[in-house]
UniProtKB/TrEMBL annotation:
The lineage of its organism: Bacteria, Thermotogati, Deinococcota, Deinococci, Thermales. Residues 4-252, 327-538 form the ABC transporter domain. Residues 559-586 form a coiled coil. This is ABC transporter ATP-binding protein. It comes from Meiothermus hypogaeus NBRC 106114. Residues 533-557 are annotated as: Disordered. GO terms for molecular function: ATP binding; ATP hydrolysis activity; DNA binding. Residues 533-550 have a biased composition (Basic and acidic residues). PANTHER family: ABC TRANSPORTER ATP-BINDING SUBUNIT, DRUG RESISTANCE ABC TRANSPORTER,ATP-BINDING PROTEIN. It holds the Pfam family ABC_tran_CTD.
Amino acid sequence: MRIVFAENIEYTLGARDLLNGVSLELRHGDRLALVGANGSGKTTLMRLLMGELQPSSGRVHRTEGVHLELLPQDPQYSPSDTVETVLKRGFARVQAMEAELARLETSLADPEVYHRWEELHERFEAIGGYQQRARYEAVLKGLRFEGREQEKASVLSGGETRRLALGALLLSGSDALLLDEPTNHLDLEMVAWLVNFLRSFGGATVTVSHDRQFLDQVTERVAWLRKGRLRLYEGNYTAFRRERALQEEQEAREYANWLKEKERREEILEQAQRWAHSSAKHAKRLHSLEARMEQFLEETVQAPDVDDPAMRIRFPVEKKVTAERVLEGWNLQKNFGGRELFHVPGLLVRNGERIAVIGPNGAGKTTLLKVLLGLLPSDHPAGRVKTGPGVRIGYYDQRLSGFDPELTLFETLYRMLGEKAHAALGAWMFPYEAQFKQVKSLSGGERARLALLSLSLQQANLLVLDEPTNHLDLETVEALEQALLDYPGTLLLVSHDLAFLDRLATRTWHVFEGQFADYPAPPSEYLERRKTEVVPRKLERPTSRVETQHPKPPRARGRWHLEREKERLEAQIAELEAQVQTVLARANQPGLHHSEYAQIAQEQHRLEAALEQAFSRWAEVVEGLEGLA
C-alpha cells in the first residue's frame, strides 16, 4: 500500500535550489536510508513528506487517512507532560483505527465497505495495533523508562528528552516513521534493541543516521541526495557504497576513453584541414570528417559527477611520546546517588594504544575519562593519576564546551590562528558567509566540526574523544575515521558507533553496573565473547536413567544450612575480588608481551564470571532466608 508519493518536487531556499526535480514513493514495508552531506536537504525532504513544508513546485501525494511522524531534533514538553502521557499520545490514533474497524465490520457484505476495511486492517496490523500495550512495555524497558512513567518530561536530561521523543515516535501509530538521527544518545544496548523493534514494524521507515552499522541493519534501499538530485540504490548502505565505487570507476573509464577518441579525431581533422586546399578530394574528405565529428560530439559522454571535495581532517603531532607509559591511574572510584559507578584499582594506557570505552548510558564512561584526565577527583582517598613525560592531551568533550557563545566563528578562530582563520574555516567546510555566525547559533554538526578543528590545532599526542561522531554526516564521519587511522598518537574513544570503534580500537574498556572490564581486542569481538562465554557450572553426580525419568523433588533447606551457605559465598566473593585485583596489578606491569596480556585478560574474565555466579547464588540464598523470616 502506498503511503506517500513525492512527484518532481523542487524546493528553493533563498537563492539556492535545495531540491531539484526529486521524486520518491514510500509504501508499507519500505526500509529507506536517506544519505547525503549536511545541508544537502535531507531534513527538508522529510518535512516536505510530512506536509510541514510546501514545495516550490511539484506535488506530494499522501494517501487519505495515513499518518507520518518525524523525530524532532529538539523536542519540547509542557510542564504537565509525564513520561507516560508523552509515550501514549499515539494510543488515541490506534484506538480510533480500531473503532473504525469495528464499525466497518458490521457491513462487510458491501464490497466497497469490505475494501475499506481491508485497507484499514492492513495498516492497523502493519503499525502493530494488536500489540500496542506490549509495544508500550517494550519501549519503556528498551529505552530505560521502566518505573519512571510518572516523572515529568520537562525535567529530563537532554539525552533522555530525545529518547522519550523516539519512544513516542515508535508508539505514534504512524504508517511511516521518519527517523532523523535516531541513535543519538543511545548506547550500544539500546541501539541493538531499536534495530529489533524497527524490524518488527510493518510500516515504512526513512532513516538518516551517521551510524553505518545501524543503517546496514535497518535499511534495504538507499536514497542519495546530492546537489538537489535524488538517486535510488537497492541494498543497504554498504551495498550502496560498493555500487557507487563501481559506478564512479566505470564512469571515469568511459569518460577517459571518450576523451582519448575525441583527441584522436581532432588530430585527424586538423590534418585534413591542412590538406583541404590541395585538392577537391581532400576538401570532400574534410567535409565528411567534420560531419562525423559533429555527430560524435552530439553523442558526448558526460564527465563523471565529481563529488564535492571531502574534508581533509588531520591531527598532527608536534612531539611524539617516547615513554611507554602514557597515562596511569590508581584507585579510580566514583559514586553517584548512593551507588558506585566504578572502582578501578589500577589502569595503564601504553603509548600508541587505541582504546574504545563502551557501556550503557549513565554507567560512567564520561566520568571515568574525566577522572583519568584530572578534571574530576577520585572518590577513593588513595586515588591518583599520572601522565607520562611529554604527554600532551587533546580532549573532545561531547558537550562541546569551552567556546564563547557570543563570538562568531571567525572571531573564535582568529584568536587561534590570526589571518589564517578564513582559510582554516573554509577547509573545514564553513562557507564564507557562515563564518560570521555566532557560536551559539551553530547547528549540532557545525559545532562538532568547530570542536574538531580546534582539536586539530592542539598538536596533542594523546586524543581523548567523547562521542565525536554525534551530529556529523556520514562523509565527515568517514573523513574523521581516516584521520584517526593515520594519527600516530594514543587514542581513547567513547562512541556508540560500533563500526567506527571496530575500525579504530585494539583494546576495549567496558563500564557497566559498577564493574569494569578490560579486553585486548575491538568491541565487537569483546561483546561476542561475552555472549558466548560459558560460565563455569558446579559439577554434579550423573543421574541414572530412572532418576532422570522420575526426579525426586528438591529437599527444602533450613535456615542453618542457608546461613552457612551465605557465609561460604561471602568468603568466596571476597577471595575472588582479591584475585581480580591481583590480576589487574599484573596487567599494569611494564614490558608485558601481547600473549601475556591476552592470558591475563582471559583470567580476568574467568574470575569475573565466577564472581557474577557467586553474587547470583548469594542473592538467591538471601531471598530464601528472607522467606523464612
